[in-house]
Amino acid sequence: MQRTFAIIKPDAVAKGVAGRILSKIEENGFKVVAMKMMHMTDAQARGFYQVHRERPFFGSLVAFMTQGPSIVMALEGDNAIARWRELMGATDPAKAAAGTIRKEFASSIEANAVHGSDAPDTAAFEIPYFFSALEITAR
Ligand code: GDP
Asked: Can you state the angle between helices 80-88 and 18-27, rounded to 10 degrees?
């Protein structure tokens, strides 16, 4: 059993497809063990994406992530990190496989509907960045 961190990003919440994305998460066997809607501040988004601070798109990415509310979650399941990345699809929706969330719901390489931790050490940073132990439900 493994946990990963997921976000339904502001573009997907604004488009009204959060419920459809959550359905796919549940249909694919993930357990949602923590969830909340939040409108990230500039400082929160910068801290979350600190690994990308030198990238040319960093400022634009922070502006995108703070443009409206998003839904942050911790998901649990067998091989959850890799399986959630697979269900998300490639970063660029033009390259995302059929049946993936980004293929169906992403608008661009930046406004790409969802986030998922890319490795165990990333999940270990990202889950407690947004959730205290008390907010994570044992299921
Ligand atoms: P992910 O792990 O698939 O989310 O991709 P990355 O970790 O490489 O990038 C983090 C996020 O930055 C992506 O999900 C996009 O929202 C955004 N992003 C990635 N590449 C680009 C890019 O080339 N241009 C812009 N504007 N945003 C990007």
From this structure: 130
Distances (CA, A) of 50 to 42, 47, 53, 125, 126: 12, 5, 5, 11, 11
**Residue whose CB lies within 8 A of the most ligand 1 atoms, among 46, 95, 103, 110, for a mutation test:** 110
pLDDT of residue 61: 98
d(CA 133, CA 110): 30
Residue 2 CA to residue 127 CA, distance in Å, equals: 12
Q: Residues 73-82: pLDDT tens digits?
A: 999 999 999 9
Q: Is-above-0.90 flag for pTM?
A: yes
